[in-house]
Amino acid sequence: MNMFRFIIFTATLIASAAAAPAKLDQRQAPAGVPDYVLKYAPLVWLHSAEQYFPSDLQSQLSNTIPRVNFNAVAAPNPLNLTNLNALGADVYLTSKDDITTNPQWIKGVKPDGAAKTQNAITAAVIVNDKGNGNVDAFYMYFYAYNWGGEVLGIDQLQFGNHVGDWEHNMIRFESGTPTYIWYSQHANGQAFKYTSVLKDGLRPLAFSSNGSHANYAIPGTHDHTIPNFNLPGGVLEDHTDKGALWDPLLAAYYYAYDAGANRFAAYGGDATPVEWLYFRGRWGDQEYPTSDKRQIKLFGQAKYSSGPTGPIDKQLNRSNVCPDNGNKCILRTILVPKRAGDEVVEGL
Ligand SMILES: *[C@@H]1O[C@H](CO)[C@@H](O)[C@H](O)[C@H]1NC(C)=O
Ligand SMILES: *[C@@H]1O[C@H](CO)[C@@H](O)[C@H](O)[C@H]1NC(C)=O
Ligand SMILES: *[C@@H]1O[C@H](CO)[C@@H](O)[C@H](O)[C@H]1NC(C)=O
User: Fold this and answer.
1) Which residues line ligand 1 (CB under 6 A)?
2) Is residue 82 part of a domain?
3) Interval between CA 49 and ligand 1 midpoint (Å)
4) Looking at residue 225, what is its pLDDT?
5) 343 located within any domain
6) CA 158–ligand 1 middle distance (angstroms)
7) Are the C-beta atoms of 165 and 231 separated by less than 8 Å?
8) For a 10 Å CB count at each end of the chain, is N or C smaller?
9) Residue 11: its pLDDT value, please?
């Protein structure tokens, strides 16, 4: 990093450390969820300019129709979280509205003053107990829409917008003690030692970037290179800061995951829907063809790309803290901003 960036970075860290942390202790978790999974759960700072907040899972189903290759397919009606698993892996939950009209439902629910998304289940906590005290807890965050950002801040050079957005933190525990935390960022992410990250009490802080919701360990500006397109750093950036605080635990479903059987079980009994977790299709529209007037493709990158797969596709039984994606897994012990040079080792 250059000196200017270093000064900004240092100042940001000092400012974050000085800000009085909110004390958030109230949790709505069913019986049986390991206490440490709650006690050390991340808190998420959304960006101050965020337009696309965390969103209710059922709302995504209510506002989309299942399509394969852009054609509607037979599906349970109404679609809900207990019948979603009837759909195949080739299905795209496709917006009923033209998303370029920015319909209200894609904007999600801004957390209230108590950091809760009211009347919206916006997160899923998935606990993988591997035995011998080794537990990975996944904190899955759902947003109805991903605004991809602008190259060089130019409105016409926008890409990577998509309907549906799943992001996550994963905390690795050893006998109830948090050791490492993973922050998902686009196709990859960053791993840090638990003791290294910023916290509110025991709870690590995640900073969700404006629009794209990539999770960073610090506020500031983060380079985000374009896959297969070697642009200089800083051309496309993620921005994080302390806008609205979101406590995902306050409106979440909680599950245990059995990797051997590839099964999920809800904590809290039958009131919690489980079937949706087996849906292997996409939570948003399929990438529009260039014949669609909404679409622009530049150097192979689409303005509107396909929606993501759900939690079952996030390597819930990974052996490293990082998912296995061909990139080196660096377990960082110091907080550093994401810079273009990082891509040399981490890829994207
Ligand atoms: C934040 O995202 C919105 C679109 O969702 C965009 O209009 C705005 O310019 C972005 N601001 C920053 C600081 O990134
Ligand atoms: C979902 O719809 C099915 C019918 O397809 C119904 O039996 C079930 O109760 C509904 N589940 C919820 C959570 O509303
Ligand atoms: C899950 O991960 C553990 C530890 O990495 C491994 O021993 C086990 O075989 C994995 N289970 C499955 C079903 O892949």
Assistant:
1) 49, 51-52, 147, 210-211, 239
2) yes
3) 6
4) 67
5) no
6) 11
7) no
8) N
9) 47
Tokens of 147: 């605004």
Q: Which pair of structure tokens corresponds to residue 319?
A: 């052996």
- CB of residue 260 inside a 6 A radius of ligand 3: yes
- pLDDT of the residue at 19: 41
CB 209 within 8 A of CB 240: yes
Of the residues 126, 129, 130, which should be mutated to test ligand 3's pocket, given the most ligand atoms within 8 Å of the CB?
Answer: 130
Q: How many Å lie between the centroid of ligand 2 and the Cα of residue 11?
A: 52
88-115 average pLDDT score: 98
- pLDDT tens digits along 253-264: 999 999 999 999
Helix (H, G, I), strand (E, B) or coil at 241: coil
Counting ligands in written order, which one lies closest to the CA of residue 77? 2
Residue type for position 314 = K
Q: Which of 147, 152, 163, when mutated, tests ligand 1's pocket best, judged by the most ligand atoms within 8 Å of its CB?
A: 147
Q: Tell me: the pLDDT tens digits for 19-67?
A: 444 444 455 689 999 999 999 999 999 999 999 999 999 999 999 999 9
Does any domain span residue 139?
Answer: yes
Task: Indicate whether 327 belongs to any domain.
Answer: no
This prediction's pTM: 0.90
What is the spatial distance between Cα 125 and Cα 36, in angstroms, rounded to a whole number? 12
pLDDT > 70 in the chain, percent: 85
The number of folded domains in the chain is: 1
Scanning the structure block, which residue is given the tokens 């919701």? Answer: 213
pLDDT of residue 110: 98
Distance CA 248, CA 138 (A): 12
Domain hosting 165: range is 39-317
**3-state SS assignment for residue 163:** strand
Collapsing DSSP to helix, strand or coil, 59 comes out as helix
State which of 319, 320, 322, 329 you would mutate to test the pocket of ligand 3, scoring each by most atoms of that ligand within 8 A of its C-beta. 319
